[in-house]
Write a structure and sequence with these properties.
With 223 residues, the chain is an alpha+beta fold. It has 2 domains: 126 residues, HAD superfamily/HAD-like (Rossmann fold); 90 residues, 2-Layer Sandwich (Hypothetical Protein, Haloacid Dehalogenase-like Hydrolase, Chain: A, domain 2). 35% of the residues lie in helices and 21% in strands. It has 8 helices and 10 strands. Strand 5 and strand 6 form a beta hairpin.
Length: 223
């Protein structure tokens, strides 16, 4: 995937957006890329579901960050803890890292903790049913916020309208590239998923299931 992305960056602009914070981008993604890669100028990063934006300028430079206020964070945290007490009945025997993270512009709940091994994450809520119940109970408690299922164990909470669609429009403005010339690839385009808001932008969307399917898609573009 690193080799494919490096080749892709030689030809087109690529943006990576995720519910994960910038620190996760660094450990899970950026460390695999050579900092000497000529194409880094074509790479754009939108962590925290698009509520932050980084560009490469001889180093990663943050262009915007729409942080929640302390009062907003308090509202979200209280509602989330209240909901978890009711619906998280099968509490895991072991927690890996924080269950609830303050990412500045986003509050994220991770069912096993953010640092849980991938194999455990994949088994925890494969049908998303556990998180769907939490989201359905939590959303009415905090109507001024968006509550979305993300990743394999997470729920991402941002201000209403501050989501990946917001990030797409920021890209449109910054790069001066019309939406008609963009394509979005994601695995959570279903209703309630953290990729779902992108559909409303009108950008062409391609749904993938996993990294292998993503790899095949990128190879097909080269073909």
């Amino acid at each position: 995937m690193t080799a494919l992305l490096t080749d892709l960056l030689k030809h087109i602009k690529v943006a990576v957006t995720s519910g994960g914070g910038f620190a996760r981008f660094q450990t899970q993604f950026l460390r695999s890329l050579s900092q000497d890669t000529a194409g880094l100028g074509n790479l754009y990063l939108l962590p925290n579901s698009g509520t932050k934006f980084f560009v490469w300028q001889a180093g990663w430079v943050e262009k915007y960050e729409d942080n929640l206020s302390e009062n907003e964070k308090k509202q979200v945290m209280e509602a989330l803890r209240m909901t978890l007490e009711k619906y998280q009945t099968d509490k895991p025997a072991q927690i890996y890292g924080p269950l609830i993270e303050d990412r500045g512009s986003q509050i994220t709940f991770s069912g096993l903790g953010q640092l849980a091994p991938l194999e455990l994450k994949m088994k925890w809520d494969p049908t998303r049913e556990k998180r769907r119940k939490i989201v359905e109970s939590l959303q009415p408690k905090i109507p001024k916020f968006d509550v979305r299922i993300g990743g394999s164990t997470s729920i991402d909470i941002t201000r209403r309208g501050m989501n990946k669609a917001y990030g797409i429009h920021k890209l449109e403005q910054y790069l001066e590239i019309p939406l008609s010339q963009m394509v979005f690839v994601g695995d959570a385009l279903f209703y309630g998923g953290n990729d779902y808001p992108v559909k409303a932008t009108g950008v062409d969307c391609i749904e993938v299931k996993d990294p292998d399917e993503t790899e095949r898609l990128v190879r097909s573009w080269f073909a």
